[in-house]
Protein: DNA recombination protein RmuC
Amino acid sequence: MTVIISVVLSLLAVLNIILLVKVFSPQRETADIFAQRLDNTDKLLREEFGLNRKEMNDSARSARDELAKSLQAFETNFERVRASVEGKLKDIQNDNNAQLEQMRATVDEKLHKTLETRLGESFLLVSRQLEQVQKGLGEMQNLASDVGGLKKVLANVKTKGVLGEYQLGALLEQI
Structure:
């Protein structure tokens, strides 16, 4: 905006100079007036350019200051958001860890319970089978002793037969 004003003022000054040259060119006095006006216009233009430069510098400085403030505010907000996200992420991690620990405890408990149940059932089955084996062994021992007794009875059959005949003969004589 200030550049446009400066350009317009420069054009007006040049037009003013051209107009003065055409109107007052025949006279020498006019040349002095023209030179004086030209100096005044030059001085005014320099002052205006200086003011425009100062305004532009002030405007640029103001824009830089605003940008710095905006960047600082953005950085502060970003840091706050980052801290919030980190906190929520830690909360999520802690919650996940707690849930995983709870799931692990539940699985361990169920596995332990199942293992105890199955081991108990297996030991009970083995115990019953051992009882049956022991019972069978007892019966086998009884059978073995009965077989041993039968073997004794059946051993020396001839001698026992002769003895039996004498005893039978004695019984018959008594009758």
